[in-house]
What we know:
about 475 residues; mainly alpha; Amino acid/polyamine transporter I; globular
Amino acid sequence: MRLRELGRVKSIDALSSNAGSGFRRVLGVWQLTSIGLGGLIGVGIFVLTGVVAATQAGPAVALSFLIAGVASGAAALSYAEFAGLIPAAGSAYTYAYAVLGEFVAWIIGWDLLLEYALVVAVVSIGWSAYLQALLAQLGLPLPDWAAGAPGTGPGHRFDLLAALGALAVGGLLTLRIEWGARFNAAMVVLKVAAVIFVIAVGLPYIRVENWRPFMPFGFSGVTEGAAVVFFAVFGYDTLTTAAEEARHPQRDLPRAVLLSLAISLTLYVAMALVLTGIVRYDTLDNPAPVVTAFESIGLPWVAFIVSLAAVAGITSVMLAFLLGCARIWFAMSRDGLLPAWFAVLHPRFRTPHRPTLIAGAATAVVAALYPIKEVAELVNIGTLSAFVVICVAVIVLRRTRPDAPRSFRAPFVPVTPLVGIGFSLWLLSRLPAIAWERFIIWLAIGFAVYFFYGRRHSRLARDMSGAAPPSE
Length: 472
């Protein structure tokens, strides 16, 4: 094996010309934006806002969101440039393949397969908890054996609703993409409307004294909070995985990336200020802080609406990330780095049904049998690694292909991507050692798959050498 084989790149022209083969181009800018919002607005706005305020940032949790938003925004601008330049499925994996080479692309794709699947599992568990609370309010509690993973409560053996939720989303995504997109858009409209409603209802109950002190844990607490709430400000990258199903990808993908991040960040900051304004920040350290806050000021009916919105909102997060996982898997298989069996579209619905159903089943098993903390520890590493790669790739491509047609150009390059790189590396350094250990094990498995399968079956390698595909 020659080292230069690891750095072979796909041409941008080839990626653009191959994009869309077999897919249905039916998604417009607002459907793409709703996929991004589906990935962005969920557990963060309904849980992390209160928990981080109580334990790390106080009322200045709004600043934590802004800091995290700057880090995410720098990466978002880089994503937007690539989305307009290379309208192909695969997101960060495909962009890395075009600039940094096959081996780096493989690492990022392999990372994101794990991260996106784990996000679905984590969110499924949270979705189950909110849905169980609603069922209990209606007098329909689940039996103990079906209420959670082993070790999460007395008698818990299996999180039934989490498993069913992941399976249902996987089934929905195997149908026509516009059906899943319409369902997702409806859920996004519902949860955004509910968040705006909660903010509007809470405004008259704000007491300025609840914002004092604004930074009870100091500025270091604000920055530590930013590392936690970063989980809530990525997700827009999921919409770029659907590039080959967009009607006008060069125009609409960059717009959708920036719109989804701007809308969600505005709602996060507003919710943080309202929540810490209506109650003391130190009362919010619980799994449902928004519900608790409105119950404490005598508005339980608002709490019920919040629970409904949380169920809807978290459903759309599951849909966005499972969609992204399946399409990255499809792109890697189409490139020959994973078996081509996964790159077959459904003959009727024109969706990558095989990776979608397999990923849905795998996340259902994980969500049903493992506690949320164990699953969540691995989530951020792959996404932050992808952010670093994308920001580096923008700088490299500006030097190697300054003439490439870009429908959107990230401003202030190289400063903007360098900001994204710096913030992402800092956040990576804040992750626990156990997460790194498990991540390294996953990477070792990925290296074995690449060197024993992907390198030999690479479609790019065959095209460059003119060789026939090796036998499976």
